[in-house]
Structure of Lipopolysaccharide biosynthesis protein, LPS:glycosyltransferase:
Amino acid sequence: MSIPVIFIHRADEGHLGLCMQQAMASNPKSRVILIGTRENRKHIPDGAEHHLIDDYSQSAKGFASFYRHLSPNNFAYNLFCFQRWFILRDFMKVNELQKILYLDSDVLLYCDISKPDYERLALEFSWTTVCNLPTLDRYCAYLTAHFRETSLLHKLLDYCRSIGNAPLSDMVTCIHFRNYYLRIASTYGVFGDSFFDHNLSCPLAPPCDQIELLEGKKKIYWKYGALHGKLTEKDGFLKVNSLHFQGATKHYIPFFLPSNLPSHDALHYFNYATCQWLLANSKD
């Protein structure tokens, strides 16, 4: 059964529309929804939905009253990263949605997200997560308690220190909530012979079999009509379920849309220096 794919984004940026377009292409039976602003309405593809952040912000504004800024990131940016979960929760309640896929505006999706196994992604990646409403309700209550109650905030800061003095962000609280409240084992984004991308510029997590890198980014192959990463320690490939073009890699997004992928099934790889899909060597 298809589930809605939801983006929440405030900025007026063209890559948003491209990522929505790809979500529609990979999940044609799903509603694809942007909770955004009047300014970015123009980026939504035909057939997608647009709703206003302001119409679902009451709980988010309440959270702002006791938010504590403990990050080197911009105050407004970091606050909104937390507020979006309240906006998403309230949107799901109003629209009677029980389960959705949330994507950041710089994620390209390539798989059918309706597989039940993907529910194990719940809040593991804040940029690519399958959420059901009861879990999201619990997470919002968790955020409220941990910012409002000093003793819980101190425990959260202790956790930040234990993982290398990480700044307090919603990425950290997602993992903390998942590990200590949901108690779900980490997938690291890997499901069988496929993976959801953590960050194009990072390798897979250390417990996982690694794939090739190219110029500090995952080396992405085109093989048999789909994108893959090639394993380094054994023969084989991992199929790409999603790619996360975080930060400076956003300008690569257009080259990974279906219209710009190789037109035949011969093995290709993407060359970041030239922004071209090139035929791979026989040894690849």
